[in-house]
Amino acid sequence: EMDIEHPTGRFTVDIGISEREGCHVITRSALLRTARKLMDGTVYVPQGAAVC
To answer: Is residue 26 part of a domain?
Structure first.
């Protein structure tokens, strides 16, 4: 599980992670969605992060 914080609180995301060829790979994720939009579905990867 991973907690994600936002301006009005936080929510918990259930994630599955495995390792492939020395890299961590997210295999599944699940969360309970509220009625209002919290994210737009874009992932921002920091410059210099490992790329597999």
So the answer is: yes
Write the secondary structure of the chain as one string of H (helix), E (strand) and C (coil): CEEEEECCEEEEEEEEEEEECCEEEEEEEECCCCCCCCCCCCCCCCCCCCCC
pTM for the model: 0.46
Mean pLDDT of 41-50: 81
- Confidence class for position 44, pLDDT limits 50, 70, 90: confident
Cα distance between residue 43 and residue 39, in whole Å: 10
Nearest to 15 by CA among 44, 25, 51: 25
- Domain contains 52: no
